[in-house]
């Protein structure tokens, strides 16, 4: 069972930045695509970004394009989500995931416990 542990969430003001980190216990991390999803209160879990195993290919949900950047360090088994120009609408629990390549959470297998991001206006 792969373990994913997120960190880096917090309470910030609109316009601020945060960097989320996710450490994976996956032995074959360097060969595994990774993704970030988020879930706001009362809403379904939604796709945010994904990155290929090599880190070369990335894909973002439209509302975060140009503000968020997903990256990875295969030597350390980490994936990151740099979030700039945060908006109150970005408030959610952010989850790290692997095992999939689509935008539906049903396509992914392993999930972290999540880290809370709260953006005040």
Characterize the structure shown.
With 121 residues, the protein is mainly β. The protein has no helices and eleven strands. Strands 2, 4, 5, 6, 9, 10 and 11 form a seven-stranded mixed sheet that branches. A four-stranded antiparallel sheet has the order 1-3-8-7, with no helix packed on it. The termini are far apart. The relative contact order is 0.32.
Radius of gyration: 13 Å
Count the helices. How many? 0
- Largest sheet composition: 7 strands, mixed
Low-confidence stretches: none
Q: For the terminal residues, how far apart are their CA atoms?
A: 39 Å
Q: How would you state the average pLDDT, rounded?
A: 96
The helical percent reads under 10%
Number of strands: 11
Beta-strand percentage range: over 45%
Order of helices and strands: EEEEEEEEEEE
Shape: globular
Structural class given helices, strands, pairing? mainly beta
Outline of the structure:
This protein is mainly β and 121 residues long.
């Amino acid at each position: 069972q792969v373990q994913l542990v997120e960190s880096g969430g917090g309470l910030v003001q609109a316009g601020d930045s945060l960097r989320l980190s996710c450490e994976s216990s996956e032995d074959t991390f360097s060969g595994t695509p990774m993704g970030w999803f988020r879930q706001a209160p009362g809403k379904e879990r939604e796709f945010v970004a994904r990155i290929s195993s090599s880190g070369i290919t990335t894909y973002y949900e439209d509302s975060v394009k140009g503000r968020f950047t997903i990256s990875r360090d295969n030597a350390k088994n980490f994936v990151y989500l740099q979030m700039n120009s945060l908006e109150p609408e970005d408030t959610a629990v952010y989850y790290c995931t692997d095992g999939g390549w689509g935008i539906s959470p049903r396509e992914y297998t392993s999930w972290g416990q999540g880290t809370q991001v709260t953006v005040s206006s």
